[in-house]
Amino acid sequence: MTPWSRTVTSKLALLGLESARAHGLSPREFQRITGIAEAEARDPQGRIAAEKHIAMLNLTERMTPLAHMPHSMSAVLTTAPFSTVICVVANSPTLQHAFANYLDLRGLIGDVDDMLIKQQGDYFEFEYQMEGNADGERTGRSAFGNLMLMARLARQYLDDAHLPVAIELTGKPFPGWQAAQEEERCRLRFGAARNRMALHLPGAAQAYALHNRVAYDVINGQAQAEVQALQQKYSFAARVQALIDELVNPVTVFAGDNTLLEMVCERLHTSRFTLHRLLQKEDTHFQRITAQVRLKKAKQMLLQEQASISNVSDLLGFSSVSAFSRFFSAQSGLTPSRFKSMHRAG
Which residue positions does the secretion signal occupy (predicted)? Predict the structure, then answer.
C-alpha cells in the first residue's frame, strides 16, 4: 500500500461517464452516484480520488458491456498515461522486466488497488488485491483486466498465443464474463478466496527479441520522471503540508508543533506513531513540514507593507525576533529585513 493519496487518471472516469451515458444515465445522475462531476472526468490532466473511483467501478462494472464501448477504450489507450505505460511494459528487455515495470508505472494510470507478483523458479503467481472491498461488493472485473494484462504480456514475450491461462476471482460473475473468457482464451472461476493467477513461464528471463533499447531508455526515463512527480504531488507529506496550511490559514497565531501535530492526527484519523512512520518513509518529518509552512506564511506576511518583522515573528509563534530571524535566514538564505527590502526594490 502506497503512503501517498491513492488516485487514478481522470481518463478512467471519462470512460465510466461514457459507459453510464450509453446505459441511459445522465452526467448529473452519474455524479450523484459516484461523486465525479463531468468537469472532473473531462480534465485531461486530472486525478480522481480512490473513493470516487471505487464508487464508479461499483456502478459501471455491473453494467452489461456494450458493443461500441471498446472503441472508446482503444482511443484512450493511445493517449498518456496509458500510452507511456504500454510503450515501456510492452518493450522491456525481458518478460521479468515487463512485470517489474508494470508494478513501477501502473500508478500513472491508477494505484487504487494492489498487484502482488511472486516468483518461484519458472512459476509466477499474481494476486490482485482490491481496495474498499471489505464488504465484498466489488465485482472481479478490475482484477480480471489486470491479471489478464499479465497473461497477455506473457503470451507476447514468449510468442505463445496458446499459453494456458486460468484466473480465480472472488465474488459472483460480472456481466459479460463469458464473452471476455472466450475473447481472451482463458478460464475463469468465481467464488475464490483470492483474485489470483498462476503461470509457468520458463522463458521469462530470456532477452526479448523485439526489444528496442533506444526507444525503451527514452520512454522509460520519461515515465520514471512522471512517476516521481506524481508521488511528490500526492505524497503523504504533501497531504500533511496542505492540511497544516489549511489549519493556519488565515494566520491569527501559528500554533506550536505539538498542537498542530494533535490537530493533524485528529483530522487524518491516525496516531502520532503512524503519521511519523509514513513521513519517515518519504524521508521527511513533521517539524520539517511545519518549517516549510512557517516560511511560506512568513514570506506572505513580510510582503505586506504594514507588517513589521516583530509582528510576523509573534504571529508565527517565535519566542523573539532574533529567533525568527535565525529561522528565516536558515530556511531562505536571507534575513527578514533583506527579504523585505529586495521585494520593495522589485
Answer: none
Task: Quote the domain boundaries for residue 256.
Answer: 236-345
Specify if 285 maps to a domain.
yes
The answer to whether residue 228 sits within a structural domain is no
Residues 129/116, Cβ–Cβ less than 8 Å: yes
Q: What is the distance between the alpha carbons of residues 133 and 50, in angstroms, rounded to a whole number?
A: 12
Query: Exposed, middle or buried by CB within 10 Å (0-12, 13-18, 19+), for 271?
Result: exposed
pTM of the model: 0.75
DSSP per-residue string spanning 63-85:
SPPPTTHHHHHHHHHTSTTHHHH
In-domain check, residue 303: yes
Q: What is the pLDDT of residues 185-209, one digit of tens each?
A: 999 999 999 999 999 999 999 999 9
Rounded CA separation 47/22 (Å): 23
Say whether both 168 and 260 belong to one domain: no
| Alpha helical stretches, state H, the chain | 10-22, 27-34, 38-41, 50-60, 69-77, 82-89, 95-105, 141-157, 177-184, 213-233, 236-247, 257-268, 272-281, 286-302, 309-315, 321-332, 336-345
Tell whether 93 and 193 lie within a shared domain.
yes
